[in-house]
Amino acid sequence: MSNQQSQFKYSTGVIAYPIFFVLSIWIVFWMQVRFFPSIKRMGIYPQKLEGLLGIFTSPFIHSDIEHLYHNSIPLFILSVALFYFYRKISWKVLFYGILLSGLFTWIIGRPANHIGASGLVYVLVSFIFFKGIFAKHYRLIALSLIIIFLYGSMIWYAFPVKDGMSWEGHLGGLISGFIFALIFRKAIAKPERYVWQQPNYNEEDDPFLRHFDDDGNFIEHLEPELEDEPISEEIHPNITYTFKENKD
Questions:
Q1: By the 8 A CB rule, do 129 and 152 touch?
Q2: Model pLDDT, residue 236
Q3: Residues 157 and 74: beta-carbon distance below 8 Å
Q4: Considering only CA atoms, which of 63, 193, 71 is closest in space to residue 124?
Q5: Could you write out the three-class secondary structure of the chain?
Q6: Report field, pTM of the whole predicted structure over 0.90
Q7: How far lies 143's CA from each of 9, 219, 223, in Å?
Q8: What is the signed CA dihedral for 201, 134, 185, 180, rounded to 10 degrees?
Q9: Summary mean pLDDT of the chain
């Protein structure tokens, strides 16, 4: 099986893992509303040691149902694309994406409680877009264009254009996704190369092209090629016959 076929291969995890991830966020939100409203304060608090815990917990915490809804749909779609096109590095992108984008938020963020999975969404948008450009593979470039068409307007929210929104988390996600696209730029699916695209390809050795003569006419049955063997020079001995007369 070629590298391309093994890379772009559907499996149960392509859908199951994103569903499980999004469902876990909804379960945490239900527990937050129903039993533990205090976990809402477990976000990222920039420049504070106790705020470092929020790097791991903030993607699972949301302020309200609208906030959760707006993050769930793009998170599911982008996760499906990640597990289908980049399944070998998908878990690394998710885990380190949460870690690095949260760390950026902790460094550059305003003194506030930064919560939500939007930082991870921006990681996936940035990674999938730049990865497709670096790969120069027609499928991945097409995926990059789709991502820009669907979520290109999100770039504006990586800047302080709206009060009450963690633009620092969005910016950290964009930077993190770009960094991962650079780090994993070699882990790409190579476009399938046909026989005639190989560097050592020789037309004279191609069994199909042998069926065409110099004028381009197709020859259905080829005559077997016989190698000429050199004619060896045989040495003929000189034979001398002697006849004796019989006197009887």
A1: no
A2: 59
A3: no
A4: 71
A5: CCHHHHHCCCCHHHHHHHHHHHHHHHHHHHHHHHCCHHHHHCCECCCCHHHHHHHHHHHHCCCCHHHHHHHHHHHHHHHHHHHHHCCCCHHHHHHHHHHHHHHHHHHHCCCCCECCCHHHHHHHHHHHHHHHHHHCCHHHHHHHHHHHHHHHHHHHHHCCCCCCCCHHHHHHHHHHHHHHHHHCCCCCCCCCCCHHHCCCCCHHHCCCHHHECCCCCECCCCCCCCCCCCCCCCCCCCCCCCCCCCCC
A6: no
A7: 15, 44, 50
A8: -170
A9: 82
Distance between CA atoms of residues 80 and 17, nearest Å:
8
Please measure the distance between the N-terminal and C-terminal CA atoms of the chain and give it in whole angstroms. 93
pLDDT per residue as tens digits for the range 72-92 = 999 999 999 999 988 889 999
114: β partners: 44
CA torsion through residues 101, 148, 74, 161, sign: positive
Q: pLDDT by residue (tens digit) across 60-70?
A: 999 999 999 99
- How confident is the chain (248 residues) per 10-residue block, as mean pLDDT? 56 91 95 91 92 93 92 94 90 95 94 93 94 83 87 88 89 94 72 54 60 61 56 58 59
**Is the Cβ–Cβ distance between 71 and 6 less than 8 Å?**
no
Structure tokens, 230: 């050199």
